Amino acid sequence: KIVVLGSINMDLIARCHALPLAGQTLTATGFQQIRGGKGANQAVAASLVGSSVRMLGRVGEDGLAASLIDELKQDGVHCSQVLPTPNVSSGLAMITVSDDAENQIVVIPGANAHVDAATVDQFADVISMGDVLLLQLEIPLPAVLRAKEIAQAAGVRVILDPAPIPATPLPADLFEVDLICPNETEALEIVGRHAKQNATAAQPQEITAWQNVAEQLHQQGSRNVIITLGKQGVLFFDGNQHQHLSAQPVDAIDTTCAGDAFAGALAAKWAATNDLIKAIEFGNQIAALSTTATGLTALRTE
Ligand code: ADP
Fold first, then answer.
1. Within-domain flag for 288
2. pLDDT of residue 196
3. Is residue 171 part of a domain?
4. Residue 151, in any domain of the structure
5. Which residues does the annotation say bind ATP (predicted)?
6. How far is residue 120's CA from residue 109's CA, in Å, rounded to a whole number?
7. Cα-based distances in Å from 102 to 31, 34, 115, 230
8. For site-directed labelling of 92, which of 66, 84, 115, 289 has its Cα 20 to 30 A away?
9. Distance from the CA of 255 to the center of ligand 1, in angstroms?
10. Would you say residue 229 lies in a domain?
11. Per the annotation, where are the binding residues for substrate?
């Protein structure tokens, strides 16, 4: 059983020839409404690869709430702990994509911003009964920390995908989890900030340079560290040994949900087998598959 605490959004995507300038009104050439949010995406990915998944979070009291929950249920995710929240909108992302694939995104946290420690306390029993708790940083930090505390007291494994990195300082004990799985940018931001360096550290190009970053992340308290390296695959460090898994060769057309597909599939396999290496291989395969169609569509058709 996987428990996911996190964000649930509706992405409103307008396609335009160019991005609008300040004060300009443009006519879109296309529109799509797609359920998003890192928490919800990871819950769906874990469910689509066969896990029993419970989503914990909040939606607003608006026209979008019902479709968000319906779509999650259609993907097999249990939603009885997704709470309606009075007087706020559901989480929204307003996205404009231009013909040359530039984008502009405004995220409205809405109900996601109301997931606090008291909300998480209501979910304590559900969290304690899971095999794996999967967390991201698209809801307020106190909720993330409280969920981690409840899970760890109950002996539930905790995976943290530290994305997106908030502007506020990150408490040191946030990283004391069983597994952390940042992408390259996030890994550098965490290491940079804790080392009190400038977070704009030069991007290491070589796998060996990433090994050094993984070791620094491990020192911050995470038992196992994975850095996802896009089309270079993933790097895994368990505190003793490094392992690099190349990405599966695919014709990638949309990598937007690759990180979420990876985290969800990894959590699913880890809960099912207790074999972390197998879980990482599986995550790496499913993440590659996810890039062959938009969003998580490729996982639905398998
Ligand atoms: P994020 O989407 O969070 O930025 P990455 O870009 O690192 O994360 O992608 C996550 C994982 O998705 C990678 O570790 C890899 O397994 C897979 N992946 C991403 N891009 C590709 C690609 N072009 N070909 C194959 N696999 C990919």
1. yes
2. 45
3. no
4. yes
5. 183, 228-233, 259-260, 284
6. 17
7. 16, 19, 31, 19
8. 289
9. 7
10. no
11. 9-11, 37-41, 138, 260
